[in-house]
Here is the input.
Amino acid sequence: MKVLYIESKLKGTGFELSKKEISKLPKKLFLAYSIQYKDLAQGIKKQLSGYNITVSGFRQVLGCSKIKSDVPVFLVGSGRFHAVNLYLQVPDVYLLEGSKIVKVSKSEVEDVVRRKKVALMKFLKADNVGILVSTKPGQERMKKAEELKVKLEKKGKEAWIFVCDNVDVGQFENFNIDSWVNSACSGLANDNSDVININELPTV
Here is the structure.
C-alpha cells in the first residue's frame, strides 16, 4: 500500500486585518505561525509593516516549540494550545481567531501553572510511573526515558515506558499508573494534571 502525504496550507491571498484589529497589537512583536498558516502569516507580516509595526522575529512553531523573545508574540495559527505554551515563555501572546485578534489572558496561563503544580506533587508521591515516548520524528527521546526509568527504579519506584505515535490520554485509566512523565511534545502537559514533562522534573 502506498501512502501519499499532501501538505495542507491556508493561503493568505486576499486576507487583510482591519485597522481596528491591528491597533490591538504592540508596536514591536514576534510573528509566529503553525505550518499550514505560513502563507497567511507572510501576508500579515507585509500588512503590519504598513502600520509601523516592527516584526523582530518570524518563524514556525509547534506545540512544544521554544522561543526566546523579549517582545510579545503574535500567533497566526489554530487554537490556544500553541498560544498558552508560548505565553509561558514570553511577555504576552496575541492570537488570530478568524479575523479577530485576541490577547491570551493571564487566567488561562494561571490554570496551566496550577495543573503543573498538581502534576509535580503527583509525581513526587507516585509509586508507579509511566514514561511516555513518541515515535514522531524530532520528538522521540527513548534514551532520556530509559535513563529516567533506571533512576526511578533506584529510588524504589516502579517505572514503565509507553511508546506510541499519538498519545491518547483517554487510555490512561486502563493502566495502574500514579503519574505520567511526558518526553514528547511538552504541550501535552498543559492540559492534564496527571502529566509532567520530563524537563520539568526535579533532580531524580
The chain has two domains: 19-104, 114-200. The chain has five helices and nine strands.
